[in-house]
């Protein structure tokens, strides 16, 4: 078994843990933000009657990769439309995608709805209540979301580790090894489980995340206002310029400690507490080019209409609607791109399409988390009607208003 990490990276003193919990919870009670998902509490969820959708489940799924300010409106609309597990289980994927449109990472909404269906059809409408069962039984619920639901909605004394918690814990305990590495993440989970308050686990976890979101922020943290600064090794190190002395404990040997910064990147005093956390350099996003064609016709009362097609039900942007599109090889000449798109449209519509009839409009860049996507946009006006082969993919003609109300991605709205 690997040796336990040096004590300066742990919370080994029960009295200190107790004091930290008290300081953090007192601050949270005074300063927590008023967020709509905090209004629906444990008592509401456990009332008899139709099983309410745990607010924290919906909010946590929406908050993955998305800012609080953006999520609030989506959250309110979602809970108004589907307040119970049963209501969500009966929704169609189309409705879910329509409400989710613009929030990004669409598989999150789809999996939330699949999980609600599973609870209703296979678990007799009863939500699993421990982190272990939530993670095991519900699609789309990972370790973090399971811990958040179990502690906040059902009061289980279990910790959580998200980006905010990683930052706070790495600073509290001067953890400078790659904070994305499995070894460090495991240590942080151990730490979160030691720290979590036994009587108010949900509030404690929210407090730790809130601290990371509002005080212990990535750049320029507000250490002077921090309720746990007396427990923070990074802050003490900033003040004293060297590791805080810990009595009766071996200090980390430079370069040997699995949690210290690598010997090649020692403490940089100009960075202060933001020396922590550290991350290995990210892989650059993959570059992709996609030709897309806005097909336009005159519909009722001569109003323009546009053809949209539905994407496959799995993969990136699953089930969303888009203008007919074709992924391109990199480094194709413009003429060749145009020809490939014309061939694609021709095969799909069963109509001859000349490459030169496609009018180049411009390029649109959209960054997905791991893809740098360039849409090469063309347009084509049609005189007659076109009904693409429905066996290939579902399609429909929409007005501009209908387009905006459809389940289309932000990238397509840019197009
Ligand atoms: Fe973060 Fe500063 Fe508080 Fe330490 S003292 S936890 S670095 S805000």
UniProtKB/TrEMBL annotation:
Keyword Repeat belongs to the record: no
SUPFAM superfamilies in alphabetical order: DNA-glycosylase, Nudix
PROSITE patterns membership: ENDONUCLEASE_III_1, ENDONUCLEASE_III_2
Localization (cell): Mitochondrion; Nucleus
Entry's EC annotation: 3.2.2.31
Residue intervals of the HhH-GPD domain: 62-214
CC terms in the record's Gene Ontology section: mitochondrion; nucleus
Domain of life of the source: Eukaryota
Keywords on record: 4Fe-4S, DNA damage, DNA repair, Glycosidase, Hydrolase, Iron, Iron-sulfur, Metal-binding, Mitochondrion, Nucleus
InterPro entries the record matches: DNA_glycosylase, Endonuclease-III-like_CS2, Endonuclease3_FeS-loop_motif, Endouclease-III_FeS-bd_BS, HhH-GPD_domain, HhH_base_excis_C, HhH_motif, MIG/MutY
Annotated signal sequence range: none
GO biological process, one term: mismatch repair
Stored SMART domains: ENDO3c, FES
Co-factor binding details: Binds 1 [4Fe-4S] cluster.
Similarity section: Belongs to the Nth/MutY family.
Role according to the record: Adenine glycosylase active on G-A mispairs. Involved in oxidative DNA damage repair. Initiates repair of A*oxoG to C*G by removing the inappropriately paired adenine base from the DNA backbone. Possesses both adenine and 2-OH-A DNA glycosylase activities.
Protein name: Adenine DNA glycosylase
Naturally occurring in which organism (per UniProt): Chloropsis cyanopogon
Upper lineage: Eukaryota, Metazoa, Chordata, Craniata, Vertebrata
């Amino acid at each position: 078994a690997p040796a336990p990490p040096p004590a300066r990276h742990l919370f080994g003193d029960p009295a200190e843990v107790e004091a930290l919990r008290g300081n953090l919870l007192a601050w949270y009670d005074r300063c927590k933000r008023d967020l709509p998902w905090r209004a629906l509490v444990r008592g509401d969820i456990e009332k008899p009657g139709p099983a309410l959708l745990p607010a924290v489940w919906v909010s946590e799924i929406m908050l993955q990769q998305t800012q609080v300010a953006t999520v609030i409106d989506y959250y309110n609309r979602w809970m108004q439309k589907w307040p119970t597990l049963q209501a969500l289980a009966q929704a169609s994927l189309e409705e879910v995608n329509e409400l989710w449109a613009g929030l990004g990472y669409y598989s999150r909404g789809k999996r939330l709805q699949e999980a609600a269906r599973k609870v209703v059809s296979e678990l007799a409408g009863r939500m699993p209540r421990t982190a272990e069962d939530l993670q095991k039984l519900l699609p789309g619920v990972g370790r973090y979301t399971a811990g958040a639901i179990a502690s906040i909605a059902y009061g289980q004394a279990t910790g959580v580790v998200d980006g905010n918690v990683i930052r706070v814990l790495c600073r509290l305990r001067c953890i400078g090894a790659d904070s994305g590495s499995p070894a460090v993440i495991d240590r942080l989970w151990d730490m979160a489980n030691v720290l979590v308050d036994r009587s108010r686990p949900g509030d404690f976890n929210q407090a730790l995340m809130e601290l990371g979101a509002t005080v212990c922020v990535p750049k320029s943290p507000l250490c002077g206002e921090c309720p746990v600064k007396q427990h923070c090794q990074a802050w003490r190190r900033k003040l004293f310029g060297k590791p805080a002395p810990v009595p009766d404990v071996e200090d980390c040997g430079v370069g040997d400690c699995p949690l210290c910064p690598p010997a090649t990147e020692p403490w940089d005093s100009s960075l202060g507490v933001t020396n922590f956390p550290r991350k290995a350099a990210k892989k650059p996003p993959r570059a992709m080019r996609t030709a897309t064609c806005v097909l336009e016709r005159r519909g009722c009362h001569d109003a323009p209409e546009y053809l949209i097609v539905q994407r496959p039900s799995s993969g990136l942007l699953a089930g969303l609607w888009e203008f007919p599109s074709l992924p391109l090889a990199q480094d194709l000449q413009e003429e060749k791109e145009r020809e490939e798109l014309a061939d694609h449209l021709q095969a799909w519509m069963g109509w001859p399409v000349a490459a030169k009839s496609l009018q180049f409009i411009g390029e649109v860049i959209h960054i997905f988390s791991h893809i740098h996507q360039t849409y090469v946009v063309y347009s084509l006006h049609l005189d007659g009607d076109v009904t693409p082969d429905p066996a290939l993919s579902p399609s429909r003609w929409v007005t501009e208003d209908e387009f905006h109300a459809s389940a289309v991605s932000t990238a397509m709205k840019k197009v």
